[in-house]
């Protein structure tokens, strides 16, 4: 699976989406999930300061996530996949974390933590994020409304540089060493 980071203020990255009508539709379908109806150009403007992580399978956009730098933290949102059981969301998260990880300083950008919110008890998402070292923040919830006005409880997860190194980077490193 291929991954790509897009900076939506960048004309070259915009052209990557706009110059192929199928890719543009797939991008809009991912961005508009679950019930939004906007154009790629709208998202280029609305998310101009964020980064998009895309997972690409057989030249098709299958998953996405948005990375933001907020006040003293990095935040991941809007992680969606249009196909299941292909690992697209895992690739999207891995791509964002790798983008933010400073290999020289062994920390995330600006020594921030990485945070995200998920629908309460979304077990597949919790499993996906946990393999990178994210943990649920106890007793931190918010109530949000979906596009139909239905209330959804959101819980939050956090990833520190220490947890990322212990739970994800070191096991991957050991796999490489053990594979020789």
How many beta-strand elements? Answer: 9
For this structure, the CATH topology is: Aminopeptidase
Shape: globular
Low-confidence stretches: none
Q: Mind telling me the CATH class?
A: Alpha Beta
Estimated helix fraction: 25-40%
Q: What pattern of helices and strands is seen along the backbone?
A: EHHHEEEHEEEHEEH
Protein architecture, described:
- This protein is of the alpha+beta class and 180 residues long.
- It has one domain: Gcn5-related N-acetyltransferase (GNAT) (Aminopeptidase, 3-Layer(aba) Sandwich), CATH 3.40.630.
- The chain contains 6 helices and 9 strands; from the N terminus they run βαααβββαβββαββα.
- The strands form 2 sheets. Strands 1-2-3-4-7-9-8 form a 7-stranded mixed sheet, sandwiched between helices. Strands 5-6 form a two-stranded antiparallel ribbon.
- β5 and β6 form a beta hairpin.
- The mean pLDDT is 91.
């Amino acid at each position: 699976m291929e991954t790509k980071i897009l900076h939506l203020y960048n004309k070259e990255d915009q052209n990557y989406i706009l110059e192929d009508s199928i890719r543009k539709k797939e991008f809009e379908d991912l961005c508009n999930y679950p019930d939004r109806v906007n154009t790629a150009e709208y998202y280029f403007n609305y998310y101009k300061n964020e980064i998009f992580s895309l997972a690409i399978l057989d030249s098709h956009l299958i998953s996405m996530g948005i990375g933001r730098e907020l006040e003293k933290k990095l935040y991941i949102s809007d992680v969606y996949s249009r196909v299941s059981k292909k690992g697209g969301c895992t690739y999207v998260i891995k791509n964002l974390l790798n983008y933010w990880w400073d290999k020289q300083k062994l920390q995330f950008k600006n020594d921030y933590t990485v945070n995200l919110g998920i629908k309460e008890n979304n077990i597949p998402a919790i499993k996906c994020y946990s393999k990178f070292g994210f943990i649920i923040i106890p007793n931190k919830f918010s109530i949000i409304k979906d596009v139909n006005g239905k209330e959804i409880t959101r819980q939050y997860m956090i990833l520190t540089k220490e947890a990322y190194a212990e739970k994800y980077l070191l096991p991957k490193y050991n796999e490489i060493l053990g594979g020789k």
